Amino acid sequence: MKNDRILLDHGSGGMLANRLIADVMLPCFDNPMLSRLDDGACFDVPAGRLAFSTDSYVVDPIFFPGGSIGDLAVNGTVNDIAMCGAVPLYLSAGFIIEEGFLLADLEAILKSMARAAQKAGVKIVTGDTKVVPRGAADKIFINTAGVGQIPAGVSVSGSNAQPGDKIILSGTIGDHGVTILSQREGLAFDAPVQSDSAPLNHLVHRMFESSRDIHTFRDPTRGGVATALNEIAARSDVGIRIRESAIPVKKSVAALCHILGLDPLFVANEGKLLAFVAHQHAEAALAAARQDPFGGDACIIGEVVSLHPGKVVMETAIGGERIVNMLTGEQLPRIC
Amino acid sequence: MKNDRILLDHGSGGMLANRLIADVMLPCFDNPMLSRLDDGACFDVPAGRLAFSTDSYVVDPIFFPGGSIGDLAVNGTVNDIAMCGAVPLYLSAGFIIEEGFLLADLEAILKSMARAAQKAGVKIVTGDTKVVPRGAADKIFINTAGVGQIPAGVSVSGSNAQPGDKIILSGTIGDHGVTILSQREGLAFDAPVQSDSAPLNHLVHRMFESSRDIHTFRDPTRGGVATALNEIAARSDVGIRIRESAIPVKKSVAALCHILGLDPLFVANEGKLLAFVAHQHAEAALAAARQDPFGGDACIIGEVVSLHPGKVVMETAIGGERIVNMLTGEQLPRIC
User: By the 8 A CB rule, do B254 and B189 touch?
Assistant: First the structure.
């Protein structure tokens, strides 16, 4: 077993595919919806609004400090649904596996997905496995899609930010991106860094309990905080002002960024959110965020203004001002 | 433009990724839910039962007679949802693209997805694009997931087949699999074959209009009719008897299978379904199927029995009997 490898037959839809599902996948994700093994999962929903999202994960390496491609795939889609203001409920999982991949690695990934799903309180209810010949894919790619329920009265969107809103950032930035890069480049550092991969749905729930007057949630993944803020400024047609000194960056992450010539504002996060909150509720939302295990370092990093619509301006640490653009160019391929 | 290629930057989440979405993707799939470009799509549903399904598509070649990886990805998930008895509504699309992929090919694929979505009456409402370095994936992989609504009173499952049920097959078998194989091997034939890639949701709807007493739908994709029937026999704990002479196979497909040593019973279909119908409604369901553009060749190929539970037995064309097993081994990798 220890050295067993994935064969093309595991993706055939035939006997070996059925065994992989029965012996390896179902024990990890066991739930009645999945166990029926129909072409899809079926579940009841009350009348209301749903959120639906998807992401594919191609991160390299597939195991890294703080996580793996498995929990990243679960947390990423949980977070995308949560950023719609929804309570994530059900996930699908689609695997594309390279022939020869170690079965033990697949099991480790599946287990990390199951643990992440349990932490987030979601169920993986349907899936698909394809195996491609050696060389046609690098190790393993995972797609997850998910559906969640939007509570009555909630309406958040990247288009809803309003002048006066305070911008809450839930914690330190750059952790995930520099972790992947340091692993990939084989860099060793005194101060180890680790991915912040985490489910943010409970944090969103807490913040909503403090106030429904939250206009926008966004998790700054690829492209980092700078890109997410630019997208919101453009879609809401507002200006955004942030203060560099207010943005928390771990010392180890800052050092690594400095050495590598990266700006942490553009580095990917996998367990952080930006929330745009009506100013009179900002302190309450901030206090609520800080109660959450994934919001302990939350802080207000800036606000929305009616000046310079579509632009993000940063007061630098030394008192100047500069425009922060969207990421141009790929800092780092296969970051998530 | 004609020779423009996908760059790593197109998957960065930054400027070029935003342009790819705005200039190439939105014009293809334009709808208000997608255009909001939030982390997910939001839509209203009435109280009731939903079906949720996913599949990844890794077919090689990506363009083939009768279709492309694009319409295959839409039709495949539309069909999986339809096989749950549901009306497909919304699809997600996740792209994993190899650096250097021709932008013109991507556009052709996106257009084929848009056409397929329109034919099926579904909307592509959310998506994701990752670009991996050259050699880390072969050309393009597409994942689709989808949700659909199960009409009140409908309950179909691979576990619901009952002794006495008649088994309807909606048309000829093996068309998709032999098309892909002949393309890949560069085989030329007098009688050209083409994929049967098609949406089956309207066919399912017609059959339901004739009778709600349909217990099981299944589209025999990877593993073919033989594998699908074996799965149903096992999950419903019933025996299945089919007649070889009743199973329609195009002459060109049969000839190709003969030359290549393939049994069409095990070859993939992408536009066919199996329906298990209470015997007193079978003729009505068959007549309804034949009214549909994708059910013209529908026929009854056998029935469910209480003998030999879990086994599929075929009366051969020369009057004998043999057990039909699930596909063992991969006939053909990257068939869908």
Answer: no
B235–chain A Cβ distance below 8 A for any pair: yes
Predicted TM-score (pTM) of the model is 0.96
Q: How far is CA B123 from CA A15, A320, B29, B74, B91, in A?
A: 34, 47, 8, 10, 6
What SS3 state is found at A159?
A: coil
B255 touches chain A (CB under 8 A): no
What is the edge-to-edge ordering of all strands in the sheet holding B299-305? B214-218, B274-277, B166-169, B299-305, B239-243, B312-315, B321-324
B-interface mutation test, from A6, A19, A57, A128, most B Cβ less than 10 A away: A128
DSSP annotation string for B246-315? GS---HHHHHHHHHHT--GGGS--SS--EEEE-GGGHHHHHHHHHTSTT-TT-EEEEEEESSSTT-EEEE
- Taking the C-alpha atoms of residue A236 and residue A161, their distance in angstroms, rounded to an integer, is 6
Query: Is the pLDDT reported for residue B24 higher than 80?
Result: yes
Cα–Cα distance between B288 and B50 in angstroms, integer? 25
On chain B, the residues whose CB falls within 8 A of the CB of A79 are 39
Question: Could you report the per-residue pLDDT of B112-122, keeping only the tens digit for each?
Answer: 999 999 999 99
Give the pLDDT confidence of A186-242 residue by residue, as tens digits. Answer: 776 656 899 999 999 999 999 999 998 999 999 999 999 999 999 999 999 999 999
Closest CA to B86 of A41, A107, A300: A41
Domain with CATH 3.30.1330.10 in chain B: 8-150
Choose, out of B31, B37, B42, the residue to mutate when testing the contact with A (most A CBs < 10 Å).
B42
With CB atoms and an 8 Å threshold, state whether A58 touches B136: yes
Bridge partners (DSSP) listed for residue A307: none
Specify whether the CB–CB gap between B40 and A53 falls below 8 A: yes
Could you say which of A47, A83, A141 has the minimum Cβ distance to residue B47? A47
Task: Give me the pLDDT at residue A330, please.
Answer: 63
Distance in Å, alpha carbon of A100 to nearest chain B alpha carbon: 14
Residue A72 in contact with residue A336, Cβ under 8 Å? yes
Q: What percent of chain A has pLDDT over 70?
A: 98
Of A13, A45, A145, the CB nearest to B45: A45
Q: How far apart are CA A260 and CA A180, in angstroms?
A: 13
**Is the predicted pLDDT of residue A1 greater than 60, yes or no?**
no
Q: How far, in Å, are B87, B106, B198, B200 from residue B206 at the CA level?
A: 12, 34, 15, 10
A201-210 and A282-290 are packed helices; what angle lies between their axes, rounded to 10 degrees?
140
Helix axes B103-120, B69-82, angle to 10 degrees: 30
Residue A87's nearest CA partner among A49, A43, A138, A127 is A49
Is there a contact between A51 and B58 if contact means CB atoms under 8 Å apart? no
pLDDT at A190: 59
Q: Which fold has domain B166-323?
A: Phosphoribosyl-aminoimidazole Synthetase; Chain A, domain 2 (3.90.650)
Say whether residue A42 is in contact with chain B using an 8 A CB cutoff.
Answer: yes
A-facing residues of B in 173-212 (CB < 8 A) are none
Element (H, E) at B112: helix B103-120
Q: Give me the CATH topology for the region A8-150.
A: 60s Ribosomal Protein L30; Chain: A; (3.30.1330)
Higher pLDDT, B9 or B74: B74
Predicted confidence at residue B89, as pLDDT, reads 97
Taking contacts as CB-CB distances below 8 angstroms, the residues of chain A near B38 are 83-84, 157-159
d(CA A175, CA B217): 47
Residue with structure tokens 């912040």? A196
